[in-house]
Amino acid sequence: MTNAELAILSLIAEKPRHGYEIEQIIEERGMRDWTEIGFSSIYYLLNKLEKSRLIESQLQHPEGRGPARKVYTITPQGWHTQVVESTEALANPGRGSVPFLLGLSNLPIIPKEQALEALDAYADCLVERREHLLQRVAEQRPLPPFVEAMFDYSITLVEAELDWMRKFIQEVEAGNVY
Q1: Is residue 74, in this structure, part of any structural domain at all?
Q2: Is 166 inside any structural domain?
């Protein structure tokens, strides 16, 4: 199961939802920052999960006017799959940022000043990312504890990476890397 499929399945496990509501939650929680869910792929993923019998849909007519919406609910097989896949995700750390590690592996061929500019830009992006996460969490409070934990984890990782980056930049500036 892909990360995007598990993310969609997890949102439906929280409560039955329609596609547009799933999009709203993805935006509110900043899930695109850590999953590969494009707006246009939500319905494709919903269809795939439904064909796999992990979710099922029912047409729901709104009170008053407006079009009927397909509301998705998780199936017992979906619950089991979600538990297995989520447990696996919790038990296995990710592999880090491959593009950044590739850049580090090629550091000797990059002129020092150019490398420092790139590292400073990366650090600036981390600062922006931290501020963005802090703003998002502040705007949405109160949050369910698991969502609060997701933001806390992301902020902690960004802060740790920023701390490491600042130290590494100092090492490059001091000539200890080249």
Answers
A1: yes
A2: yes
State the amino acid at position 2 in one-letter form.
T
Detail the DSSP E strand segments found in 67-145.
69-74
d(CA 176, CA 3): 39
Structure tokens at 96: 């880090």
In this structure, what token pair is assigned to residue 84?
Answer: 């297995």
Contact 72, 16 (CB under 8 A): yes
Rounded to a whole number of angstroms, the distance between the first and last alpha carbons of the chain is 42
The C-alpha atoms of residue 128 and residue 135 are separated, in whole angstroms, by: 10
* DSSP structural state of residue 30: T
pLDDT digits (tens, 9 = 90+) for 26-77: 988 888 877 888 888 999 999 999 999 999 999 988 787 878 899 999 999 9
**What pTM value is reported for the model?**
0.73
Q: How many structural domains compose the chain?
A: 2
